[in-house]
Amino acid sequence: MARLRPLVGVYGGTFDPPHNGHLILADAALVQMNLARVIWVLTRRSPHKLAHSITPVELRSEMLEAALEGYTKFEISRVEIDRPPPYYAVDTVRLLKLTYMDEDLVYLMGGDSLNDLPTWHKPEALIESVHTIGVLLRPGCEINLEDLETKLPGLQNKVRFIHVPPVDISASMIRKKIKQKLPFRHLLPPVVANFIDENHLYQEPVG
Asked: How far apart are CA 115 and CA 144, in angstroms?
């Protein structure tokens, strides 16, 4: 029987800066999970990265808008920009469900985040509130789903693995290359690289 409700991916992050790796991962989720679209949730500050300095959110928002221009199945949500902190995933999903009432949400995360899920804020409520947890599985990431199930009963039935090609790109790598005046433009959409140059971003130490 065909699905009556479309699936929508929720892809959160600081995107500081948004890069080609982010696009590759989101596209893999879109195709392998048969998603109607992917909602990119730009956060002011991740509760897991409070010690890191971060580029102002409006600059990151401009970069993300530029990076996603032309992608008809990608859209940006301001659900974590237009509300005060803290920004917990369980609260974000609750608010998104008020907007996307006719769709089921697939919360996207990396394998490292899945391993850390028992330490998140109200992880049981997050698991219950989403249709699926789509785990972007990078090569070399080890996950003991049976062990996680003992800590978070019901998790195993919600997890679907998304296999992604090896992508050796990270935002921290890009920030470091820029600071060290090394080539970086090949790691980003050209429009984002131009924005970084024009606004002299990441030339000082960033977390």
From this structure: 8
Domain ranges of the chain: 7-168
CB 51 within 8 A of CB 100: no
Q: Residue 134: enclosing H or E segment and its boundaries? A: strand 132-137
**pTM for the structure as a whole:** 0.92
- What does each C-alpha distance from 177 to 27, 112, 198, 207 come to in angstroms? 25, 24, 17, 13
Q: pLDDT category, 100, cuts 50, 70, 90?
A: very high
**What is the length of the chain?**
207
Looking at this protein, which amino acid is placed at residue 34? N
Tokens, residue 127: 């698991």
Give 51's pLDDT tier (boundaries 50, 70, 90).
Answer: low
What is the fold of 7-168?
Rossmann fold (3.40.50)
